[in-house]
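INFO batch 0412 | record 1 of 1 | parsing
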Amino acid sequence: MTTNTFDFIGGDIGAWKVISMDSVSGLPIENVKYIDILPNLTNNLNKGVWTLTGFTSNVRYAEKDEREKLIAVHSDLGRPQANYAALIPIRKTESWWAMAQDERRKIFEAKSHHTETGLKYLPAIARKLYHCRDIGQPFDFLTWFEYTKDDKDKFEELVKSLRETEEWKYVDREIDIRLVKA
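INFO prediction complete | emitting tokens
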């Protein structure tokens, strides 16, 4: 059985050891020592301290040429040398969601250059976006990144540049969780 829905389980066991957990904006979540990522199955034995669930989907804001550029240079998750990771749950404001799709796209790409910014850091930094707004989770997105020790500075640049964009004015809750393979 395959699934496109996954549980990010924070607790005392897991494949990824937490280095730091910072509430960038909004309410924090309870600190944990480890995070595990498992397919969302009703019989997950590791219930942890908290579980965030998200699903993978099609690329929603990228246009065809942007999508082709991303596909051409992306890295897969699970590279053996990528021992570092970040889980960044994000919730956007209700004013963001009240906008029409084309209005959000204009802020996302035309003003904030989200895709263009991300392309600068590929393939060094692998990324996967999980959607969770539509399934009643406390966040809209769970963004998972993997990278090597040598690319830690590049990751910091990426996060800093995205947080300085107009798009980030619409983020009302963000948790930055840094990890290393356990």
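INFO post-check: The radius of gyration is 16 Å.
INFO record closed
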